[in-house]
Write a structure and sequence with these properties.
The protein is built from four helices and seven strands, in the order H-H-E-E-E-E-H-E-E-E-H. With about 150 residues, the chain is an alpha+beta fold. It has one domain.
Length: about 150
């Protein structure tokens, strides 16, 4: 069975995360999507980067939670195995943005949606908030300098 093999190894989540961290390169196309408010008035915002195989990093927030995840498509049979573990398999995500420090998040290997699994950290936590600030700092440092207005 898919999960029993990984439980005995005890390193699948770290390997999965390391593989996806390598698979979500800086040259991947970043996306951002905001869902309209639901019947309760809550909005969900998702941003991330995916490679050509569908592997990538996703940051999602709503009115209550913040998620940082390394995700990857999985076959339906493996998804069936993964969905039986409702609490997920304890994992760790290490995230480094540009020249900033490496950030560590406690996470779970679990189903992300109907077609993807992921190593998912749930917050908000102070480390997640700092990592988002790291992204802002890295983005600001890579923007081209604005040219002064010409007369």
């Amino acid at each position: 069975m898919f999960l029993s093999r990984f439980r005995s190894l005890g390193v699948v989540a770290l390997g999965f995360a390391l593989g996806l961290a390598h698979a979500a390169p800086t040259h991947a196309q970043w996306f951002t999507h905001a869902n309209d408010p639901d019947v309760f008035g809550n909005t969900t915002v998702v941003t991330g980067a995916m490679d050509d195989s569908g592997n990538g990093i996703v940051v999602q927030c709503d009115h209550q939670n913040l998620y940082v995840a390394f995700v990857s498509p999985v076959t339906s049979s493996k998804m069936d195995d993964l969905s039986t573990v409702s609490s997920g398999i304890p994992s760790i995500i290490y995230l480094k943005v540009g020249q900033q420090l490496v950030r560590k998040f406690d996470a779970k290997l679990r189903q992300w949606n109907n077609t993807m699994a992921g190593v998912v950290a749930t917050g908000p936590t102070p480390a997640m908030n700092t990592a988002i600030k790291d992204c802002k700092l890295d983005t600001a440092s890579t923007r081209p300098a604005q040219q002064p207005n010409q007369p």
